[in-house]
Amino acid sequence: NAGVTQTPKFQVLKTGQSMTLQCAQDMNHEYMSWYRQDPGMGLRLIHYSVGAGITDQGEVPNGYNVSRSTTEDFPLRLLSAAPSQTSVYFCASSYGLAGGTEQFFGPGTRLTVL
Amino acid sequence: SQQGEEDPQALSIQEGENATMNCSYKTSINNLQWYRQNSGRGLVHLILIRSNEREKHSGRLRVTLDTSKKSSSLLITASRAADTASYFCAQIRMDSSYKLIFGSGTRLLVRP
Fold this sequence. Notes:
The structure holds two protein chains of two kinds.
Chain A: E1 4-7, E2 10-13, E3 19-25, E4 31-37, E5 43-51, E6 54-57, E7 64-66, E8 76-78, E9 87-94, E10 104-105, E11 109-113
Parallel strand pairs in A: 2-11
Antiparallel strand pairs in A: 1-3, 3-8, 4-5, 4-9, 5-6, 7-8, 9-10, 9-11
Chain B: E1 5-7, E2 10-14, E3 19-24, E4 29-37, E5 43-50, E6 55-58, E7 61-66, E8 71-76, E9 85-93, E10 100-102, E11 106-111
Parallel strand pairs in B: 2-11
Antiparallel strand pairs in B: 1-3, 3-8, 4-5, 4-9, 6-7, 7-8, 9-10, 9-11
């Protein structure tokens, strides 16, 4: 199993550009989530999904969109990138709800917005 | 802030010593998890402790939970250089089972 994969590993955008961060898991997990991690801080939840077709907002959802058309994939879209979105983005998945089971994390995408 | 607080923010010890990290939180929780993050990598799950448990062990790791003080601690015994990493607690609050709220982490350096 590949676990949780994220692409790209690194990305540089200009202010106003759009892009999609990809996340995929091959463990048949129902729960998936996106976090951002800023320097010296913990992770903050952006959006999460409890199954295909079901998504909801986390702590810091503004500026980001998500969709979940399949169990395996959970892309994160930045519609109009801003310098404040410079961060490291992590995708995670778990078999059950976030709190009840181990979260498996991807390796992260380091995004810089100029 | 919704996040818990971790203490200390940074810790430097000699190989073989024990390392203790603390985590405090503000609201009642369902359970609490600890994760490790090596530099530039994703997080790895260490231990989950439920609100009705007081202590849990996994190898050289011991986690305690005191719900009356709203705090948890992670003890790493006989530390090794490979334990050098950041350690985060993550809470699931009773009002939201879907959201894992992370603390700001403790950066542990184990000197050989």
